Amino acid sequence: MVETLNITINKNPNSKLDQVDFDNIQFGKIYTDHLFVAEFKNGEWDNFQINPYDDLRISPASPSIHYGISIFEGLKAYKNDKGEVLVFRPDKNLERMNISAERMCMPLIPEQLYYEALDTLLGIDSDWVPSQVGSSLYVRPFLFSDDDFIGIRPSQDFRFMIITCPVGAYYSKPVKVNIEDHFVRAIEGGSGFCKTGCNYGPAIYPAKLAQEKGYDQLIWTDGKDHKYIEESGTMNIMFIMDGKLVTPALGDTILNGITRDSVLTLARDWGVEVEERKIEVDEVVTAAKEGRIQEAFGAGTAATIAQIELIGHNGTDYKLPAVEDREFSHKVLKELDDIKYGRIEDKFGWIHKV
Ligand SMILES: *Cc1c(COP(=O)(O)O)cnc(C)c1O
After folding, report:
1. Which among 172, 220, 234, 333 is the best mutation to test ligand 1's pocket, defined by most ligand atoms within 8 Å of the CB?
2. Strands (E), 117-241
3. Residues 154 and 38 in one domain
4. Which of 37, 288, 337, 342 is a plausible cystine mate for 318, CB 3.0–4.6 Å?
């Protein structure tokens, strides 16, 4: 590839920045002034642009609309106390995006394209990265089919885009989760390990049913026998059981979360015993009954750690230990925040400075 991409920059003449109340941000409602877009045509990437945030023009026949030929990522940028913009582990998002791309017959995103797009966009909208404690800028890269052909086949034309939105301090209220024994998120041989639109639409209905029963979300189990724990909503799930950190092993039905990897890395570094393995529903229910679960939480970019206060199974609710008493998850959340905001040494090389 060439030394630098030729990104055309069309500045937004009508910045919305001064209309935003950064102390009261509603997630996903307000987008920054600019977006990045690139086109894949005739087998190559071209037409790199930063444009004012605006609606898209797209063929009504696009397979991204009809067949879910679309993939996405989610990561965050933070401001340190020098006002510099720090991105947390963007290399892992690129790696995962390209794994999703391959599964969906889409072109890979070259490293150079990804980083130049990210750095240029975050540079232009750097004033949008909040400096309030606990706030950040959510970054959403996505890739979708841009064909104007309604047939089912590998697409030829694509668009890669990045949009960003500020997010406020996210206090995640402890959640009540129900173990799902009917609906399925992913199955072996399927696409559960990809962040593709196809996996998320069908998961909304079972989550809605769980909410109608009084739970906040559900715990997905394996698609064959509903015997093993897989994930919690759109987060990876972790337990401190008998003093050990236990989480389902990765496979093609579980999303390889970057928060998950970061938590496991810190735990191992601290000498906490870690087990990545199959976890039976029965094991969790029995351990909950016997008071052998010290902590349970979801791990993901949105909340980092979402405490689970109660697990429902077959109509019985098992209350877990008080959230205030949970040592590991509080410590890991604080350590991750300190790394993300550049308050402590980045000893694992997780920070990318814009
Ligand atoms: C994105 C996602 C996660 C969490 O991944 P992070 O990289 O930690 O944000 C977990 N499970 C599912 C299904 C997801 O879509």
Report:
1. 234
2. 136-145, 158-167, 175-179, 217-221, 229-232, 235-241
3. yes
4. 288
